[in-house]
Amino acid sequence: MSKIKYKDLTSLNYTPSKGIKIFHYCNKKTFWSICKNKSIWLSSIFSMNDSKELSWGRDILTEVLKKHRDEFQQEFRIQLIFIVFSIEKNLLPLIASFSGDGDLLSQWRAYADDGKGFSIGLDASYINDYFPVRLKKVLYNQKEQKRLLFYSLKTFHKYWILNNNKFSGALLEVLIEFSVDIASLKNPTFFEEKEIRLIHLLHKENGNWVDSGGHNSQKDVIPSESVLYRKSRSNNPDVPYINVSFSYCKNNIVKEVIIGPKNKMSEHELNKRLKSLDISEIIINKSQSSYR
User: Fold this and answer.
1) Distance (Å, whole) CA 76 – CA 34
2) What are the domain boundaries of the chain?
3) Exposed/middle/buried for 207, CB within 10 Å: 0-12, 13-18, 19+?
């Protein structure tokens, strides 16, 4: 039996070392918008390509609770399920998806206009230190997902008993965070993405989604942003998002750009255009994929 890497859901918290880059695959329009405006979008989790965002992790959680029903009282299970399955009534996770690998054919096809776009590599440690987000690794192995959730539940159960058999106060806050982070468990068919996601929460106020700002890992207070809306790809409601700026970054947060396999722009031309936007001293490469 292979060694299990993760202990509980907090094991997926991502604290990158200095020099680590994470990559965002995008079409040309989005790429130049990021470079020109020096900002990235955090969008509703329900606008992502994976139709089972949140629900996959909830299904795994339900399986684990059923399998180990003898270890957890019915009241514990009822309270936990009610909270975990109802967070979107008052909270909306916004995410931005990155990959640990900047040159994956599956990513070019899915997210970068079938290879005509770019992969932009950002400084992961700077994002972790100064953005009002939490960084999470995504886990795809189903066996590890179940083990991870089981040990998370054992910890919750221990403190639930100490808290007079209820989720309240600090324990409730931790469970709400758990309810959001459960989206870090994804269908194994997405494993090639090697996803690192940025997470930020909106809350509902008078029927509208509102941003209350947040804190970065340095505990600095980050001001709130205006909640904007863009058209969805289908007939679904408009997608809420916020713009997170990195224009104040003293050191250039953009560290590398990879030109898509179908993108005709030369490295020289790209370098020239980026310098005109005050983005310089970065690595520029052409994708190694022979895709056409």
Assistant:
1) 45
2) 9-286
3) exposed
